[in-house]
Specification:
This protein is mainly alpha-helical and about 110 residues long. The protein has one domain. The chain is built from six helices and no strands. It is elongated and about 60 Å long.
Length: about 110
C-alpha cells in the first residue's frame, strides 16, 4: 500500500483543462494544414448533402429509417470518421513528440 504522501498526480490531473485545450488546438489546425484530412471532411460533407437522413442519424437522438443506399452511405461515413480520428491521433502524437524534444532542449537535457 502506498502512503498518501507518495501518491502522484498524473499530468492530466495536475493540469486540469490545459491538456484538453492542447489536444483541441492540435486537432483544430488539421483541416487547414492537412490536405488528406480536409479531403476526408469534404467527402463526409458531400455524403451528408447527398443523403440528408444520414446526417440526421448522427445529429439527433431520434430513430431514423434509412434505405439501402443511405445505409451504405452511413457505413462509409463511419469509416471516414475513423480515418479522421486516426489522423487526429497521429497528429497529436507527433506534436507531443516535437514539443517534448523542445522542452528537453530548453531544460538542457538534450
Amino acid at each position: 500500500m502506498v502512503p498518501d504522501e507518495f501518491k502522484f498526480e498524473t499530468f492530466v490531473e495536475a493540469q486540469g483543462t490545459a491538456m484538453q485545450e492542447y489536444l483541441s488546438g492540435v486537432v483544430a489546425k488539421l483541416s487547414k494544414t492537412d490536405k488528406a484530412y480536409r479531403a476526408i471532411q469534404d467527402k463526409i460533407e458531400s455524403i451528408y448533402r447527398q443523403y440528408p437522413h444520414v446526417m440526421g442519424m448522427f445529429d439527433t437522438e431520434k430513430v431514423v429509417a434509412l434505405n439501402e443506399q443511405e445505409c451504405a452511405a452511413a457505413i462509409e461515413v463511419v469509416g471516414l470518421q475513423n480515418q479522421l480520428v486516426e489522423l487526429e491521433m497521429q497528429s497529436v502524437y507527433f506534436r507531443g513528440c516535437y514539443d517534448s524534444v523542445g522542452y528537453l532542449q530548453k531544460a538542457g537535457i538534450l
